[in-house]
């Protein structure tokens, strides 16, 4: 038995020797195959790691998904993650920021990629040079040492230039991306491709707006037509900038580490053998899978941080906008509580994120730096403790050179792989910014198509009201007729409140119309339909183009710029000159509203002020009337536009507008305006209205009689009390 066992052992040893000889003979080919397999594995693992994630969490996957990633039956937004929805959104935005292979952005990416390869090549060369420097020290060869130091200094020139220029190109890319996105967003946001249909005026339909009515000291607040975007100003200025910077950095943060992993490990495999590299890869991937499973949802955190920061900014902007009303109402305490509540929400979220980043950073450093470092030391020790096939004996200096070079390559490779892992966090943050920017673009696109999403009032669920909200009316723009006609048009607010189920009337150009009624009955809503600001839910509207209307509200808008700009807004000085109008003509217009002295008082037409603070309420209304006379439209919409000017000035402006051929559509409760209007549209506040001719003298007489009767009726209780006292005697 012993002899048989010995024979078998010798036979096995002989077979192993034959296999080893065959392996050594075929080792160069095997090494190449292993290296190619490693490169394919790294690329495939990186690709799968960033693309094969589910679109939604498992709990939400049970619900029916809409095409845009939102859940039906749920008001919560979809979870932000690196998933199929993120890549779909990113591809759409990439087609915007990189419009073609010949674009400057594509050329900068090519230049950026070339510099990344150059930097990696320099790093590989420096690793080998580092080993040579240490080897020359161990061998005590001063000439070789100083020669290597000279090479070290010379390679620093392209290395420092490459690193600096990489940062420069990356920042240039971020600016280029931001410019592309900002130009597109501003074109859609402030552009007006079709001012008569649902397209155009996206900024109006998206933003919150305020219309003040100083009737009975009441202020009416109206919401936007679409409430998906709460703070578009922040998204346009802040989120696009953060997205552009993150997108420009993600390419470098992802492409460079992947390239480093491949090149460093290829060079390392040449020194220690591809077998050890494969073993190291297996160990690293196992620990990387653990690290990936522990990664928090940084994309959701980023999106929520931007949203909370926008809410805090919005609360401060509201405080500045309504400072006067808050001061009069002594609402400092209430506003302070609201702002502090928003800030506390931001702080709580940021603290939560910091805690998650802290423990994850601890785990990440422990695995990436220390565990992977120990794996690397074992790999570097292979050429020292084991003789590799085909290697000849080397001295201490050679072993030192090999160890230092391999150690340098391994550290660089480990750092690169760690950056690949860390880049998932960068990609998660990019997913958060992508979700915000994509939401802005998608919402603006829907608004252009007339698709609004809005939280409706409870009355909108009533069957008859719901039927009205589902309908769409017709707006006919007439270039040949200057008349206005409403035929069975419902008046509906953006939140679904039906103010009037059917409105029908017709006025001819030159017939001034007075609109009266209680607050909130739909007087101003009529003007928004005429201006093409609100959709028509039914019936037919026939009107001139929107350019035929100018609105003068109670608190007119004064733009940033010169005094001249306030009168000719939105025209520029060049457009004014093209119309043949001079500063002298503007002075004549200001003289009509008794504001010609403001030119000298403020320092000339080119004086620049914060005009909303420099002018009184009455002066602002006069400037708005001067603007009306400058543009001379067919119709003027006056919404309490003379509430802050004297009665004689009010009459003078009304008469001058009539002389210019401007038809007035006026909302006002002042009896002094009745005589300037031929027709009246009277809302009763209960869903009804009366449209008829206005007999100012008769109506004024009736108003006087009504006031007299009301005065007498107010005395009745006192008279009855006095009669009761007299009967007691």
Automatic annotation (TrEMBL):
<keyword id="KW-0812">Transmembrane</keyword>
<feature type="region of interest" description="Disordered">
    <location>
        <begin position="52"/>
        <end position="77"/>
    </location>
</feature>
<keyword id="KW-0472">Membrane</keyword>
<dbReference type="InterPro" id="IPR027417">
    <property type="entry name" value="P-loop_NTPase"/>
</dbReference>
<dbReference type="GO" id="GO:0140359">
    <property type="term" value="F:ABC-type transporter activity"/>
</dbReference>
<dbReference type="GO" id="GO:0005324">
    <property type="term" value="F:long-chain fatty acid transmembrane transporter activity"/>
</dbReference>
<protein>
    <recommendedName>
        <fullName>ABC transporter domain-containing protein</fullName>
    </recommendedName>
</protein>
<dbReference type="InterPro" id="IPR011527">
    <property type="entry name" value="ABC1_TM_dom"/>
</dbReference>
<dbReference type="InterPro" id="IPR003439">
    <property type="entry name" value="ABC_transporter-like_ATP-bd"/>
</dbReference>
<dbReference type="GO" id="GO:0042760">
    <property type="term" value="P:very long-chain fatty acid catabolic process"/>
</dbReference>
<dbReference type="GO" id="GO:0016887">
    <property type="term" value="F:ATP hydrolysis activity"/>
</dbReference>
<dbReference type="GO" id="GO:0006635">
    <property type="term" value="P:fatty acid beta-oxidation"/>
</dbReference>
<dbReference type="GO" id="GO:0007031">
    <property type="term" value="P:peroxisome organization"/>
</dbReference>
<dbReference type="Pfam" id="PF06472">
    <property type="entry name" value="ABC_membrane_2"/>
</dbReference>
<keyword id="KW-1133">Transmembrane helix</keyword>
<dbReference type="InterPro" id="IPR017871">
    <property type="entry name" value="ABC_transporter-like_CS"/>
</dbReference>
<dbReference type="GO" id="GO:0015910">
    <property type="term" value="P:long-chain fatty acid import into peroxisome"/>
</dbReference>
<dbReference type="InterPro" id="IPR003593">
    <property type="entry name" value="AAA+_ATPase"/>
</dbReference>
<dbReference type="InterPro" id="IPR050835">
    <property type="entry name" value="ABC_transporter_sub-D"/>
</dbReference>
<keyword id="KW-0813">Transport</keyword>
<keyword id="KW-0547">Nucleotide-binding</keyword>
<dbReference type="GO" id="GO:0005778">
    <property type="term" value="C:peroxisomal membrane"/>
</dbReference>
<comment type="similarity">
    <text>Belongs to the ABC transporter superfamily. ABCD family. Peroxisomal fatty acyl CoA transporter (TC 3.A.1.203) subfamily.</text>
</comment>
<keyword id="KW-0067">ATP-binding</keyword>
<dbReference type="GO" id="GO:0005524">
    <property type="term" value="F:ATP binding"/>
</dbReference>
<dbReference type="Pfam" id="PF00005">
    <property type="entry name" value="ABC_tran"/>
</dbReference>
<feature type="domain" description="ABC transporter">
    <location>
        <begin position="484"/>
        <end position="711"/>
    </location>
</feature>
């Amino acid at each position: 038995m012993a002899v048989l066992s010995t024979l078998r052992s010798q036979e096995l040893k002989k077979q192993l020797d034959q296999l080893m000889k065959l392996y050594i003979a075929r080792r160069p080919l095997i090494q190449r195959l292993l290296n190619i397999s490693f490169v394919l594995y790294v690329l495939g693992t990186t690709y799968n790691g960033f693309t094969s994630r589910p679109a939604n969490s498992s709990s939400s996957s049970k619900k029916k998904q809409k095409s845009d990633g939102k859940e039906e039956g749920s008001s919560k937004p979809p979870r932000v993650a690196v998933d199929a929805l993120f890549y779909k959104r990113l591809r759409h935005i990439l087609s915007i920021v990189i419009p073609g292979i010949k674009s400057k952005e594509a050329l900068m990416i090519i230049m950026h990629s070339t510099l990344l390869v150059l930097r990696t090549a320099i790093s590989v060369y420096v690793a080998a040079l580092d080993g040579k420097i240490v080897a020359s020290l161990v061998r005590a060869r001063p000439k070789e040492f100083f020669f290597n130091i000279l090479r070290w200094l010379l390679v620093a020139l392209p290395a420092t230039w490459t690193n600096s220029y990489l940062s420069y190109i990356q920042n240039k890319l971020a600016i280029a991306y931001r410019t592309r996105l900002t130009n597109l967003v501003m074109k859609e946001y402030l552009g007006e491709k079709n001012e008569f249909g649902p397209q155009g005026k996206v900024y109006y339909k998206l933003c919150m707006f305020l219309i003040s009515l100083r009737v009975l000291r009441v202020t009416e607040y109206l919401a936007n037509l679409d409430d998906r975007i709460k703070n578009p100003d922040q998204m346009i200025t802040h989120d696009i900038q953060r997205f552009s910077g993150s997108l420009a950095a993600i390419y470098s943060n992802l492409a460079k580490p992947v390239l480093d992993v491949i090149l460093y490990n290829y060079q390392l495999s040449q020194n220690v053998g591809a077998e050890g590299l494969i073993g190291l890869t297996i160990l690293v991937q196992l620990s990387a899978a653990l690290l990936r499973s522990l990664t928090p949802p940084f994309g959701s955190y980023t999106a929520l941080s931007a949203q909370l920061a926008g809410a805090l900014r919005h609360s401060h902007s509201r405080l500045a906008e309504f400072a006067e009303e808050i001061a009069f109402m002594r609402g400092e305490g209430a506003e302070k509580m609201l702002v502090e509540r928003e800030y506390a929400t931001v702080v709580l979220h940021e603290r939560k994120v910091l805690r998650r980043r802290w423990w994850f950073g601890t785990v990440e450093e422990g695995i990436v730096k220390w565990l992977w470092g120990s794996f690397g030391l074992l790999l570097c020790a292979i050429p020292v403790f084991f003789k590799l096939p085909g290697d000849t004996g080397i001295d201490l200096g050679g072993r030192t050179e090999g160890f230092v070079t391999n150690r340098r390559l391994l550290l660089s490779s480990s750092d690169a792989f760690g950056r690949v892992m860390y880049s998932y966090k960068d990609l998660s943050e990019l997913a958060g910014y992508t979700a915000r920017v994509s939401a802005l673009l998608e919402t603006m696109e829907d608004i252009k198509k007339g698709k609004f999403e809005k939280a409706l009032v409870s009355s909108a669920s009533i069957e008859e009201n719901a039927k009205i909200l589902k309908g769409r009316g017709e707006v006919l723009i007439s270039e040949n007729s200057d008349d206005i006609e409403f035929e069975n048009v419902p008046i509906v607010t953006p939140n679904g409140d039906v103010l009037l189920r059917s409105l029908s009337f017709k006025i001819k150009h030159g017939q001034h119309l007075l609109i009266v009624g209680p607050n909130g009955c739909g007087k101003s809503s009529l003007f928004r339909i005429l201006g093409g600001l609100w959709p028509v839910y039914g019936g037919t509207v026939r009107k001139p183009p929107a350019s035929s209307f100018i609105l003068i509200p109670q608190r007119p808008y004064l733009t940033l710029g010169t005094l001249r700009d306030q009168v000719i807004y939105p025209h520029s000085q060049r457009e004014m000159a093209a119309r043949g109008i001079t500063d002298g003509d503007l002075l004549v217009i200001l003289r009509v509203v008794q504001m010609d002295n403001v030119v000298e008082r403020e320092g000339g037409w080119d004086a620049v002020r914060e005009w909303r603070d420099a002018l009184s309420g009455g002066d602002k209304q006069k400037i708005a009337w001067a603007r009306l006379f400058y543009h001379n439209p067919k119709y003027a919409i006056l919404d309490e536009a003379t509430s802050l000017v004297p009665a004689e000035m009010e009459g003078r402006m009304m008469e001058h507008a009539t002389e210019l051929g401007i038809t007035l559509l006026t909302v006002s409760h002042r009896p002094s305006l009745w005589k300037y209007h031929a027709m009246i549209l009277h809302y009763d506040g209960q869903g009804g209205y009366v449209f008829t001719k206005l007999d100012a003298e008769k109506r004024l007489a009736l108003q006087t009689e009504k006031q007299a009767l009301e005065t007498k009726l107010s005395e009745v209780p006192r008279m009855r009390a006095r009669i009761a006292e007299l009967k007691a005697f």
